[in-house]
Design a protein that fits this description.
Blueprint (H helix, E strand, L loop, with lengths): L13 E7 L14 E6 L2 E7 H6 L4 H11 L8 H9 L6 H9 L15 E9 L10 E4 L3 E2 L5 E2 L2 E3 L3 E13 L5 E12 L2 E6 L2
Antiparallel strand pairs: 1-3, 2-3, 4-9, 5-8, 6-7, 9-10, 10-11
Helix pairs in contact: 2-3, 2-4
Amino acid sequence: MLETPGVQDLSANSRTFAVRSPDRRADCRLEEPGIEIVKRHRKYRILIDRETLTARPPGWLTRWTDLFSERGCLASSRSGTLAARIAQSFPLHLSHTYSALFGNSMDSNFMGFLPGRTSKMVGPVFHDGSAAGLSAVASASAPKAESSGKLSIDVRASEDLIGYEESWYAIRKTMDGGFRVEHERTAFFDRGGLRAATRP
């Protein structure tokens, strides 16, 4: 059973989050139904109830944390992290969590970018001179049922495949309210494991 991180009582209807404002003069008293904000110097306690996550319009949580950040109440790179932390703190149906962060559309080909997050891309690496669009898989057998109830598939890699690389990209908020994607590092793996790692 998966439990919500940092939560001892799953039946509780409210959660409290502590954040620190980078600007002591910031006015962070944002009026939002279901959210209570208590200020102590540069520290804030955000109290939010469970019903708020499901009752508000789609995508509202991301917009609210962005506004909280724009007021100077939170570092701009942390708004997406705070939104995800709040949404994942309640044992909700996945569709409710997704709706609070991104909206109604949940497309398997869509990936939401939130400032403060890191995205990892994995791709195959081929020999120099390999044809464009080459697949990493040369052949794959039909699924076979095993006695354990699992399915097994035999896959043969392309002879041109020499390994794969993992690249990490940081998503950072810009001053005009947009975001940019910055390359952080790339690691190359061959059949024996990690061969090299590079940074910008």
